[in-house]
# Entry
Amino acid sequence: MHFSLFLKGIPMGLIPKIIKEVFRKSVEKPFTIHYPFVEIKPAEGYRGRIKWTVSKCTGCSMCATVCPANAIVMVPSERTQLKKEPQFIHYKCIFCGLCAEHCPTKAIELTPDYHLYGLKKEDVKIVTAEK
# Structure
C-alpha cells in the first residue's frame, strides 16, 4: 500500500499536527494502571461485593422481591426466623443496591470490594454468610 493512499482525505495542514502528537505520545508515561499489581481505591459510594449478616436476617424475602435482576433466591435454612435465607448469585447481580435499601433489618450491605472475579461463574456465585 502506498503512503499517499493512507493520507488521502486528510488536509495537508493537519499532517504536521498529527506527526507532532504521535511523537509526543510515544515518549509520555502510559495512562493505564497496572492492576492488580497496583491497588485501586474505589470511588465514594461504589457498590461492590454484597455482605450479608446472618444474625440480622429474618428471612422475609424482601431482598429477593425487589431485585430487578433476579439475582437473589430464597433457599430453606434453619439459621433465620422464617426458615429461609437469601442466596446471592453474583454473576446476575447488577449492584443496584435495592436489596440493601429495602432490607428492614439492614442485614445486607454493598461493600467497596471490587474483586469479583473467578475462572468459572460458580466461583463468584454465592456470597458466604457473615456472622
